[in-house]
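A common beginner's mistake is to predict each chain separately and then try to dock the pieces by hand. The better habit, illustrated here, is to supply every component at once so that their relative placement is modeled jointly.
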Amino acid sequence: MTRKVALFVTCLVDLMRPRIGFAAIRALEAAGCEVVVPEGQTCCGQPALNSGDRDHAVALAKQTIAALEPYEAVVVPSGSCAGTIRCHYPELFEHDAAWLPRAHAVAGKTFEIMAYLDEVCGWRPEGVSLDAKATYHDSCSGLRELGIKAQPRRLLKSVEGLRLAPLQGEETCCGFGGTFCVKYPSISNAIVGEKADAIDATGADLLLAADLGCLMNMAGKLNRKGSKVRAFHAIELIAGMGDGPAIGEEA
Amino acid sequence: MSGFTDRVDLALADRILKVAVERTAGTAEAKRAVAVDAFPDFEAARDRAAAIKDHVVAHLGAYLEQFEAKAIAAGAKVHWASTADEACRIVIDICKAAGAKSVARSKSMLGEEIGLPHALAEAGIGRVETDLAEHIIQLADERPSHIIWPAMHKTREQVSALFKAKHRSPHEEETIAAMAESARRELRTQMLGADVGISGANFLIADTGAVCTVTNEGNAELSLVPPRVHIVTAGIEKIVPSMPHAIHMLRMLARSATGATLTQYTTFYTGPKRADDRDGPEEMHIVLVDNGRTKMREEGLAEMLRCIRCGACMNHCVVFRQIGGHAYGGTYPGPMGAVLTPVFDGLKQSRELASACTLNGKCQEVCPVRIPLPTLLRGWREKSWREGLEPTSMRWGLGIWAWVARRPALYRFGTGVAVRVMQILGKKGWISRLPLAGGWTRYRDMPKPAPQTFMNQYKKGRRT
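With all components supplied together, the output reads:
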């Protein structure tokens, strides 16, 4: 039976690193899914939600729900966007009898991509190899809102030749925090500075995570401090695209 | 008062502060993890602790009345204060009626919250802080920077210098034991000579009228038993139904705060000295303080009233670990402080605290009473937005972005343009200066995006 899934690309992947979206399609298809990319999607509204701008958060949530509800399942290559849809949409419509069931319905069938491939599809990458030493950062929303921890590690284990080096403080926030990093850049910098040092200390060639916001923050800091560590979204490696350009490398 | 960002800049520039915070919070984090692992089922214990507090907060009036009746029956006098000023006035009046020249105070964050040290000074009443860290703070004329370790921002080297400057017969040997001995010499005589002992309460036991304090130095006992009068100032949310409930909360408190199974001293004070008691105060006064708590319950902050002041949220907070407690500018720092400070100081004064958080959820994960701190902080952000307190640039920026994001075709056009602009600005894969994102590029590079957005490429038929 083919699973029909909608890919919610996320605004950051759409804008900054389309490769992650195509890697997601490739991995989902390898796992036996039929992937569609719904037209009406833009952003899930998380920046508005986290800034306290409830009206705009509600408007964007409605648009996203309407775009995604026709599909059997929705897969998202980001823990924080998936967390917004799964955990926060129902909260947003708590007092809206018309929209609450729709929010719940979409929340119930939306999955972070690592969880979907690992837990729903029970899939493992086959014939994918990359000779590299990588370290993994657990992004906060995925970890604490959705319990994403073992799933990416199980998937990455099937990438032949890939060795995972433990990262000291792997569950510690990288200091991105959405608009936090531009509202309080100096605090954010102090946090990501420590994270970059911890990443360098692993001696890994690659930094992996499953949220582009965090990855851009860490990769941007690593590059500024002259580190040689290259950053990828974990799905790129899992889909066999780990031999391409890392974040910040020209294609 | 300087602004939040000024205080943050000062804190970030202070490398000694960073060392001091890291030493204490880092140790606390590691010890808590060990203690929680060793606990049979900490998650179930957290559920129970949260349920106890929720039950009490839902039936606050009934438990407070029960507590009052039992405390009076035990011989204590109970006072009610709705505001900080009223609470201070009650304490000062009791001190004056007792003819007190000096009071010995056992560390209490509620005392800080209501401004008691200041009120005592204004009334001309001498104050001896008997908690070692509070003693350090008093000598340095500062404010606590942490709710468990008020002097967390100071290194032992700084404390040594302070003692040498201020103590009458300071330590000579540079050891912690010698420094503690110096403080003991300084404090003991002052403690024993005080007319009134003032404490807070970690718990109020409704069915016995007892007040519970916990310390690791025994200073509460030494400050509260010898004087003629003992005054307790306690927030009304400190109540628990009975002793078994208090014991459960104590197990959670010590482990979450320091990783210890129990504090060195845990004392229950039930009324003043009885006829056959060998010691104890002649009078015991309990001042029950509201100071915004009833309003919190009514205005969506009931969950915050679960807080048992353990400090785990700040010990595990990435922001607190960088800026320390003083930068928050309120009585309570860290995540719990960011939720509480707008209640006491007003949202206009303190709206930035809720924003200066990455919403990473670690605080909620370690909270022994499962307070949804990120949700409560989001609530303040929402209120701040609704009341128009957020900067105009933010309101406009987000407004325009959301307006465009609600029009997918226009949004595709806009992102297409944005990508082309960033293409021009990027060199060798990276953008080192990006207009409108200076906060980002001041400290880190921005990766140059691909020449076309995902949606554009997908539309043109690219699939993998």
